[in-house]
Write a structure and sequence with these properties.
single chain, 444 residues, mainly alpha, 20 helices, 2 strands, globular, disordered C terminus
Length: 444
């Protein structure tokens, strides 16, 4: 009898060794790119942190805090512009060597990136059965590659401290109804005004207790600073807060706010305030409406992300290192794009035809990838915009000089609200370790 034919070995995707190699290559490749991305930022040389420390020494010598000024080739003159409560926290760093301060700020920023990125991607990992260590590692490397993170580190900014406070509050404490919900947002607001938009968000979501706690915390921190430095506090709240010229030129391309966009049309003159206020009112009303709807639907990450984008748009000055909020936007987009395709979901998508849900998920995936590319390349890192005021005088220049403003408006209109997770959304093949679920719950 002729021998029976032998079937060829089955081809499967179960190749643990190959997967490990591919993941390792991906991580190494991303890590290898980071130095090149940080190279242009070396010229910053922790510039902002050095201003803080010189201002603190000036203040410690008995001089008025907000009299400190130093020349700058782009902005003309730069001052200490933070609220007095920030000065209280920064002052002890003036007692240690500058190199030690730089090291502490950098380490804390990177640690903040790791912690907050894990908070953002942990639910998505559990939902889609993604490899935990690999996904978190790739996500952290991508966040470190983003221009806002690079600018935060190379300038020596405090933004990641604010992000940690805000995310801990709005992802964990507020949704879980903790008694201390709102403390993080309140402290962040006392440190740097900008996070005050999240108190408005809490009000829009009818989170009255959290909004009250946040307001009381910000007020208590501000009063503490006033008790320690009454003259400087009075001067800041009655004069310096309203003097936008102390922060820098509003027309500079690094200012990615609506006011910055308008300023680039009228430079070197300031734009008319009325059109700006009308734009602010429309953007804030629409954005907060969308953010509150997302929060009421249970998508707290989308709600706080929309609010952060609103804050960047409506603030008169929004430097590139302020715009962390593109990062959670990418997470929301990626998570929505990875949601399993279900016929009933397609039929329910905006009452559209069958298959509309699949097309929408593809669009969200493209938007997530496009946003990632844009925020890694950035607006100022690889462009020399000069030092003199210059008007926007062509469509191409308008797009390039206002990239983050336009991206914020696009995301404000298109960022999806994800439905609550149901059994059909959780892959049966994925193991959901108890540790991961505990991590999703956040701090107790």
């Amino acid at each position: 009898m002729p021998p029976e034919p032998v079937a060829p070995p089955a081809v499967t995707d179960d190749d643990p060794g190959g997967r490990t190699v591919r993941r390792l290559v991906t991580v190494v490749a991303l890590a290898a790119v980071l130095p090149a991305l940080y190279l242009p930022g070396r010229v910053h040389d922790f510039f902002d942190l050095k201003i803080y420390m010189r201002a603190m020494r000036w203040w410690a010598d008995g001089n008025p805090l907000y009299d400190y000024v130093q020349p700058d080739r782009v902005q003309g003159e730069l001052y200490f512009t933070y609220p007095p409560f920030s000065a209280l926290l920064l002052r002890p760093f003036a007692l240690i060597p500058l190199g030690a301060t730089v090291t502490i700020f950098t380490v804390l920023t990177v640690l903040g990136v790791v912690v907050t990125t894990r908070w953002l991607v942990a639910p998505m990992i559990a939902r889609h059965g993604l490899p935990r260590v690999f996904t978190v590692t790739v996500a952290v490397l991508l966040v470190l590659a983003v221009e806002s993170t690079r600018e935060t580190i190379t300038f020596g900014q405090i933004n990641m401290l604010l992000v940690v406070l805000i995310l801990a509050d709005l992802l964990f404490a507020v949704p879980q109804g903790r008694r201390w919900a709102g403390v993080g947002v309140g402290l962040a607001t006392a440190l740097k005004i900008f996070p005050g938009i999240f108190i408005v968000y809490l009000l829009a979501c009818r989170r009255w207790w959290a909004a009250a706690v946040a307001s009381a915390t910000a007020a208590a921190a501000t009063l503490l600073a006033a008790a320690v430095a009454p003259d400087d506090s009075w001067r800041f709240w009655t004069h310096e807060l309203w003097a936008t010229d102390r922060v820098g030129r509003t027309d500079y391309t690094g200012n990615q706010s609506l006011f910055g966009l308008l300023s680039r049309f009228t430079a070197p003159d300031k734009p008319d305030r009325l059109p700006w206020l009308l734009l602010v009112a429309v953007v804030a009303a629409y954005g907060l409406w969308r953010a509150a709807r997302a929060a009421r639907a249970g998508d707290h990450l989308a709600g706080l992300t929309l609010t952060g984008l609103i804050g960047g748009l409506v603030s008169p000055i929004t430097w590139t290192h302020h715009l962390y909020w593109f990062i959670p936007a990418v997470v929301v987009l990626a998570d929505a794009a990875l949601r399993p395709a279900r016929p009933e979901a397609d039929l329910a998508t905006a009452a559209g035809p069958p298959g509309a849900g699949v097309a929408r998920r593809r669009w969200l995936g493209v938007l997530a990838a496009g946003t990632t590319i844009v925020i890694i390349y950035g607006v100022v890192s690889f462009q020399d915009w000069g030092v003199a005021p210059a008007r926007t005088d062509s469509p191409g220049e308008f797009l390039v000089r206002n990239t983050y403003v336009l991206l914020s408006l696009l995301l404000l209109a298109t960022l999806p609200t994800r439905p609550p997770v149901g059994p059909a959304d959780s892959p049966d093949r994925a193991e959901a370790p108890q540790k991961l679920h505990q991590m999703d719950r956040g701090p107790e």
